Every structure is written in C-alpha cells, then in structure tokens.
Amino acid sequence: MAALLGRFCRKLSFPSSSHGARRVSTTACESETGKPLNLYSAINQALHIALDTDPRSYVFGEDVGFGGVFRCTTGLSERFGKNRVFNTPLCEQGIVGFGIGLAAMGNRAIVEIQFADYIYPAFDQIVNEAAKFRYRSGNQFNCGGLTIRAPYGAVGHGGHYHSQSPEAFFCHVPGIKVVIPRSPREAKGLLLSCIRDPNPVVFFEPKWLYRQAVEQVPEHDYMIPLSEAEVIREGNDITLVGWGAQLTIMEQACLDAEKEGISCELIDLKTLLPWDKETVEASVKKTGRLLISHEAPVTGGFGAEISATILERCFLKLEAPVSRVCGLDTPFPLVFEPFYMPTKNKILDAIKSTVNY
Amino acid sequence: MAIWFARSRNLVSSLRQNLWLSTILVKRDYFPRPVVYTTSRLSSTAFLGPLTSLRRESTAVEKQLDLVQQIDVDDAQELDFPGGKVSYTSEMKFIPESTSRRIPCYRVLDEDGRIIPDSDFIPVNEKLAVKMYEQMATLQVMDHIFYEAQRQGRISFYLTSVGEEAINIASAAALSPDDVVLPQYREPGVLLWRGFTLEEFANQCFGNKADYGKGRQMPIHYGSNRHNYFTISSPIATQLPQAAGVGYSLKMEKKNACAVTFIGDGGTSEGDFHAGLNFAAVMEAPVVFICRNNGWAISTHISEQFRSDGIVVKGQAYGIRSIRVDGNDALAVYSAVRSAREMAVTEQRPVLIEAMTYRVGHHSTSDDSTKYRAADEIQYWKMSRNPVNRFKKWVDDNGWWSDEAESELRTNTRKQLLQAIQAAEKWEKQPLTELFNDVYDVKRKNLEEQELGLKELVEKQSQDYPPGFHV
Q1: Residue B14, number of CB atoms within 10 A of its CB
Q2: Binding-face residues of B in 83-102 toward A, CB within 8 A
Q3: pLDDT of residue B18
Q4: Half-sphere exposure of residue A311, counting CA atoms within 13 Å on the CB side?
Q5: Does the distance separating the beta carbons of B444 and A227 come in below 8 Å?
Q6: Do A89 and B244 touch (CB under 8 A)?
Q7: Is A237 helix (H, G, I), strand (E, B) or coil?
C-alpha cells in the first residue's frame, strides 16, 4: 500500500488494513489509488483543497508567496491571488497574532512558521491568546480557524536551529491541538482536519520527509480524524508509540525485532494533544510493555506524559518499566547528530531489554 | 500621505491655512519634497528631508509628486536600490536623535473649556455633547464605586480610568458600532458608550452566573461580541497584531468598518507593538491604533520607557500616518478619532493616534502610586487638568447642562451602581461545569473524566471548597 523511503534508503511498507482489530488503518479513502506524492506535495494538495473549498481561508507566512522554502505553498498565490496567499514581514509574533485576528473574525488562517525552531516569539500569542481565546471570552469569541504549520525535526545537517522538535512545549497548553503526521497520505488528511477543526491547531511537519517520503496519495478531498491514534503494525510482545518521522525508524526496529522472535505493535499517535489514551491503553493491556520514542530530548519530552498516564492506567498489566528512546538532553548538535538521535539500534536494544526484563 | 492632503477636507485645508502648523506638519510629514543637499559643513543638527521613495505602488497624486521630484533632482544623483530610488550625498550627515521641536499636540478646547479660536474640529451637536458628558460622568461614578467595592473586599480586583474619561468616551463616540474594538484594559468607557449596562459590568466583576465571560477571568476583563468589543486579556499589546488581522478581514469583506485598538505608553515597548504596526502598514489594513500616553506604566515613568518623542514619531517609522492629540480634550479626541477612522476605512490604511493624558488613579487596586510619584502631581492633574470638568464647562457654556442635571445624573448613577453591585453579589454563581467548557469547542473525554473526578471530590469533601457552585 504505502512505499516509504526511509533515511537508510530501505523500502518499507505499512501493513494493509486486513486485521480488523481496534483502530487499525481504516482511513476512510474511497480508493487507495492516487498519485505517488512526497510530503510537501501532499501538503500542497491539502492547501489547494482548503483554499478552494473555503473562500474565507488564507495562507500566509514568510516566503509562502513564491512557494515557500520547502515548496509546500507552490501555486497557491497564482491560483488564489495575493490577497489570500501572501508573504508577511519576518515576525513570528506578528504572523500568529495577525492570524488570530483573522480567525477571530471567522476566517481560516493557515499560517506558516518557517521552521519550528523559530516559533518561540509566537509562543505568547499561541499560549496566552490563541489557546485561551474561546475560554476567556465565555465562548463569545474564538479563533478556531487558526492552523499553524511548521517544519520540525532532524534533517541530517540542521544543527541547533533547523532540527528542533518543540512539540512538548505545546502539549502542555489546554486549548490548542498538536498534530504530527507520519507520511504524505496522512499529512494531507490530517492537515485538512486541522484546518477545518474549530480549535487552534499546531501542525508539525517532519521536514526530513518532505522529499524523502513518497506514497500513494488520493487526489480527492479527505480528512483523517484528530485525536485517534492508529495501530499501524500489530503485535503481542511490546507496544511502541511514536509520531512523525520517528515512526519510520521504529518500523525498521520492529522488523529487526521480528527476526529475533519479538512481535511488536506499533502505534502512530498522530494527535499529541488531546491524545488518544484509549488506543494506547488497550494495546499495552494486551502486550504488557511500552516503549516510546521521539527525537526531542528525553527530559520533559512528551514521552513522559504517555509513560505517566499508561503507568496509572496499566500498572498491574506491565511486565517491565516503560522505556523511552529519545534525543539526548542537549541542544540539537550538528556533527554529533548520529549520536544524538534515537536510532534504530537504540530502539532495538531497548525492545530487547524491555522484553527480557 | 499626500493623498489625504490633496483631498482638502475642511479640517485639512484649515490645518494648512494655520501657518504655524503647516510649517511643522507639512514640511516634516506630508510633502515628499525634493531633497536638496548642499556641501555645507557637517552639522549634527542637520535634518535630512522626509522619506522619498516608497516601495508600494504609487497613487495618481503620488505619481505627480514623483514627477515633481524628478524635475528638481538630477537623475544622475539618484541610486537604485531594492527599496526604490534614493538620492545620494557626499556629505556625511546623521539624522538627529530627535527633532528640534517636539511634535505638537492637537487640541480644540482650552483648560477653561472654551474653543480655541480658529480651531479645526468636527462639530458636536447638543445631543451628542450631552451624551458624551453623561457617559464621562457615569464612567467616573462607576470607577469610584467599583474601586470602593474592591476596597471593601466585595470584588477581588479593579482598575480605574480616572483622568482618561475623554479618551474613553470621545473615541467611542467617534466610531461606528461596526468598528471592531480590541482594547488593552483601561477603556471600559468604549464598552459603556456602546450600551454595556452597569449590571453587565458588575456581573463580570463578580464573576457570577450572568457574566458573559463565565467567571473565568479577573474583574475588568470585559468582552462582548454583541458590542464588537473583544474580550480583554491581561498580556500587554497582544491585541495589536490581532487588530491588524481583524482590519484585514474587514478589508477583504469590504465592510464599512475598521479595527480600533488601544494601548498604553508602556505597551509600545512590547514587540507586539512593532509587529502590529508593521503588519497593519504592509497589509494596508484599516486599523486605528490609539495609544493612551498617560505617563506611567505602573511605577515606570515614560522617561524610563523610551527615548523618543513619545509614540507619535514612531508612526512614520512604519509608514503610518500619525497625530498627537490632547487626550484630555474631548472635542479634539473626537475629531482626531473620527478623522482617523474615515481615513482608515476610505483609504484602507492604518492610522496612529497618540492621546496625551495622565493616569490620575493608581495602576490598579494592587497599587499605591504615592509610593513612586508625588501626591501633589496627582492632585494637580486631578483638579486642574480634569478632562470631565473641562468638557463640562464647554457643555455648560452652551447652555446644554445644569446643576440639577448634574446632581440628578450623579445621584441616579450612583444608586444604579450600588443596586447593580448588590444584585451581582447575590446572583447565583457559575455552575462547576463551566470550569470545563469552552477549553475546546466540545468537551473531550479527558476533561469529562476530570470533571467527574472533581464532582465526586466536591461531594465528598464539600468543606474544602467554596459554596454555591452547583455541581
């Protein structure tokens, strides 16, 4: 079904939806056909559809006019006009603040932050304004039409400021949603859901996959539901939970583990806030073991939240401590990236030690 | 900028006729005159002419002026850069850090409430003037009573607009009800003008069941979608870039309305001030930015806030037309805001107004300003520079007001407020479920679980929790 070129250039496929158990890939698609598209093209398609279906939607941010530094906004300005697709001054707090104002007037503001590493000037607007807009006004006002897109994650050579995974900061903010797709087909459906969701959403796009990931993406307008995790690989011995580009690595670790007789169940969380506890809980109750992996530093990372929650809910079913294979507690390094990253072998080692606990 | 002048409305043409003003305003701000450079000796006080080229598309009038420029300036003397043509000079001159004179302040009424001869202003008829005065007085009484209520422990917090009644009411009077207001927090008069009742103010301060904000925020954080008044939030200046977005939305919908947003002198130091003005200018959004320069940001005097000549000079840095107005002169504020609003809507551009005033009250009920400023300074502004008294004199002189009317208004308003407070205090509290609603559009499982857990706890250990919140 899906062909995904991983960073180690191995062909991978995700299991087809034949098992019929809880929340296995049953993404509503009229047909599995479509064109092979990479991630930025899938996102581009979603944006075209979003702007086409709602005349009150806008796309803006730094350099989006000519197509964007990652080409996600190609063709939009030519097709929908400079009034709806435009460059903004270089000012993230202005971009998000302006977007909140537009959204508060009932428009859909699809805002781009050029790199997630640069989202912090907008943190006040996101946390203190967007997240609280509806609540503080007693539902008289809302900025649900706001969607903030930002490329995140390791890219091989990004260093401190082109590789960050800041999702954990945002997962601590009631009132916004945080969504991270794992592949082109997922990205298109999830992004359309985010845009149309009546709550402000932060959508992190794994920049590593912009070109690297190619998948059959249906050409029509479809949405993948938020806050529904997906079991993308069934197994019995251990549950692995991840999101975004890291799933590719985890998938490889699962394949290696299978050769050694360990059956791994792999879950794509997709929405980190609010997250689907039920799917993860059901899985861990079956397997008795949990491993979480993310690129962001381990301390205070979102894996800690998943670990604490599952511990509360599944304590007596656990055969081993919850394992977290994550980035180191350092700024994202350049030459040391291969050492910093939660690699396939680090995950494989953790799978084995968890199973053999 | 030059277009506005060319339209020559009464106000504008009489401004030009006022020679004193024209030498300052015209020279400095409105005419992109050809810049003439001499080989005179270096002088640090030498003042380079106003901005010449603009990157955006010129209007017809500006194209004519550009032609004028080309005639006077030798083409060979110009350099082409990404921002457009700019003349060059071999003389090294620094633009001085400030102009030799401060930007003057537009006013209409003198301190005795008499119209200064030959003033430009938009006339205010009896009905409007009386309403404006009544609302200014009402705001005074409201501030006094709510402040006292906080002191008595009946509400947890309050902040007054004492000394800024003219800005509050006159600006509101100058706007249309369709203009969308994004306040900071010292502009309840705008909401009052638009019809928010004293009871509605009281309900928010008490956070009772009738509060539209559902008791979630501190007192004075009013908001009303019916009145096009965005809910107040405590962080400073966050509303400014939002106002640019609101203005852009109105522009795209071709509405006959603009965004109007308020900020204090302190707030202009925030990054969001820069973001808001820059975005509004680049996006050509109809936004009126009104800065209440009241001299103090809590205990920080403006001398510790910026080194510029106040806020008005910052407008030009963003390509925004701006004016400094006497914020304690209701007629001047009315004219300035009305004109700014018209410009914003008809020309689809932002405008900046710096309203000079003084914060007579403490920053809030959590502040005692006598700790950082002289009591007689406060007293001076309260008594001698009182905007309400000043406007009252003008209204009185016109024969539109009387002592009876004054006494009746103040007595009735006071009574109404005391009743509103008593009623608000007794009103039912918000049900506990409102703690969990509106975080998202629909309440999710996670919050449902937390709500259930809390309900059980409250039922089991009710003594740990304040009474009156129905589960």
Answers
A1: 15
A2: none
A3: 41
A4: 12
A5: yes
A6: no
A7: coil
The set of catalytic residues of A is: 92, 162
Residue B421 in tokens: 């407070």
Q: Tell me the pLDDT tens digit for each residue of B59-88.
A: 555 555 444 444 444 555 788 999 999 999
The stretches of chain A forming alpha helices (DSSP H) are: 39-53, 76-80, 92-104, 123-124, 133-136, 167-170, 184-196, 209-212, 246-259, 277-287, 302-314, 337-340, 344-355
With tokens 């700024």, the residue in question is A331
pLDDT tens digits, one per residue of A181-192: 999 999 999 999
Distance CA A12, CA A279 (A): 24
Q: Which residue of A has its CA nearest to B244?
A: A98
User: Which position has the token pair 């939240």?
Assistant: A305
Question: Please, what is the Cα angle at B301 between B300 and B303, to 5 degrees?
Answer: 120
Rg (chain B; Cα; Å)? 25
In total, the C-beta contacts within 8 angstroms joining chain A to chain B are: 147
By C-alpha distance, the chain A residue nearest B430 is A138
- CB contact under 8 Å between B216 and A102, yes or no, is no
B267 CA: distance to closest CA in chain A (Å): 15
Residue tagged 């009544």 (tokens): B134
Cβ partners under 8 Å of residue B8, min gap 6: B16
Q: Could you give phi then psi for residue A110, rounded to 5 degrees?
A: -105, 105
Q: Rounded to whole angstroms, how far apart are CA atoms A16 and A277? A: 23
Residue of A129, A132, A140 lying closest to B224 (CB–CB):
A140
Residue ranges of B 313-332 with Cβ closer than 8 A to chain A? none
Q: What is the ipTM of this complex?
A: 0.92
Q: Report which of B149, B223, B155, B226 is spatially closest to residue B183, judged by C-alpha positions.
A: B223
Answer whether B14 touches A (CB < 8 Å): no
Measure in Å the smallest separation between the Cα of B231 and chain A Cα atoms: 6
Is B426 a residue whose pLDDT tops 80?
yes
B58 is catalytic: no
User: Where does residue B36 rank: exposed (0-12), middle (13-18), buried (19+ CB within 10 A)?
Assistant: exposed
- pLDDT band per the 50, 70, 90 thresholds, residue B471: confident
Q: What is the pLDDT of residue B23?
A: 35
pLDDT, tens only, B218-230 = 999 999 999 999 9
Q: Where are the beta strands (DSSP E) in A124-279?
A: 146-152, 177-179, 201-206, 214-217, 230-233, 238-242, 264-268, 271-273
**Residue B148 annotated in active site:** yes
Q: Of A132, A207, A127, A130, nearest to A171 (Cα)?
A: A127
Q: Which positions ≥6 away from A89 have C-beta within 8 Å?
A: B275, B278, B279, B282
Q: pTM to 2 decimals?
A: 0.89
Say if CB A293 and CB A254 are below 8 A apart. no
Active site residue B234: yes
| Alpha helices for B348-374 (secondary structure H) | none
pLDDT tens-place string over residues B306-356: 999 999 999 999 999 999 999 999 999 999 999 999 999 999 999 999 999
Chain A residues with CB-CB distance to B246 below 8 A: 101-102, 104-105
